[in-house]
Amino acid sequence: MTAPLPDAATFRAPPVQDRGRLGLVLSGGGARGAYQVGVLKALAELTPRDGPVPFRIICGTSAGAITAAVVAGHARHFRAGVVNLERVWRNFHVDQVFRSDAASMLRAGLRWLLALLSGGWVAPAPRSVFDNRPLRELLERHVNFARIRQAIEHGDLEAFAVSATAYARALSVAFYASAAERPAWLAAWRRGEPAELDLDHLMASAAVPFLFPPVRMGAEYYGDGAMRQTAPLSPAIRLGADRLLVIGVRPQAAPAHAAPRLPEAGPSFGQIFGLMLDTLFMDGLHADLERLERDNRLIAAAGDAGEGLRHIETLLLAPGEDFGDIALRHAQEMPRPLRVLLRTLGAAGPGGGALLSYLLFEGGYTRELIALGYADARRRRDELQAFVASESCRATTPG
Fold first, then answer.
1. For residue 112, with 0-12 CB atoms within 10 Å meaning exposed, 13-18 middle and 19 or more buried, which class applies?
2. What is the pLDDT of residue 265?
3. Above 70 in pLDDT, residue 348?
4. In the predicted structure, residue 147 carries a pLDDT above the cut 90
5. How far is it, in rounded angstroms, from Cα 341 to Cα 347?
6. Angle between helices 381-389 and 34-44 in degrees, nearest 10
7. Other Cβ atoms closer than 10 A to 154
8. What average pLDDT does this structure show over 27-50?
């Protein structure tokens, strides 16, 4: 067992105005979000035991929005928030996120079949494959929005944002609460809107299309925040962040695999849908990091001509391996009715690991991802501590 990192008594950051605002960006990824918890656990061990969160701006999308909300709610006691997160993620079960018992699976299947056979006349098509009301009940117990508002009012946090997708407008919307007066913004297919954040915003941000139902807020329905999020770093920057710690859940580069044997029937539905989720959650993040790094180089080259433009430092922590194979090793931990459904979709064998890696909310799998995130952050401890503690560290994403 790896020994915990020693307390860093000298880690306490200098005043924010002297070093620029540090932001945290957490991407979506379903059950893969356990990796982010491991990274935050290692970071928490580098901060004073009873110290505040080191981030001034916190932004999250989908599962990352849920983790971000827990961290923001513990802005005064960062370690306590991470301990709470780890406790939940280490002991996860699928039925805490969506109903996976035999009756629920059978009922959903029959409704889809009846809607299909009747053309929607006898029964309308279900709004989603899964019923995720258990997730709302879990969030009600662990996310405290009143405490997030207090953290912002008392100066422990400057801004908090959750991203969701507006179906009617086809926009990525960042709903935010901020201590400073920051007007709403509108850019290419994305918008920032001040809001009184609550559980509906989290449920909307994590409403993966087809799998979970959309959430109505006001006169519009919203779904997973990653769907139209072409610039996932933008909300944190617009809310005032000068440096960004970004925790992703997908390798920066495609893993090197031998060419697989192609099945005669072609890729299964499960394999195709897993690839769609992979694209949904991750491609925008890495593209935005590359775009920001390019802008930084242009600003540096402009010299005095670039005065007034902001150079945004970034540090990305992401896994070095894909989680599909890990998920396949833990597939038997899922409830039997769910395993039957995924096997029917072709997601229970080789090629189906991607889909499993997003849906496998079971303790054996999530504990392994927490350990991976923790180990990755420990390996980069010096870089991570310097980036978070001092603006003099010019850590940037690889070009």
1. middle
2. 61
3. no
4. yes
5. 9
6. 70
7. 11
8. 94
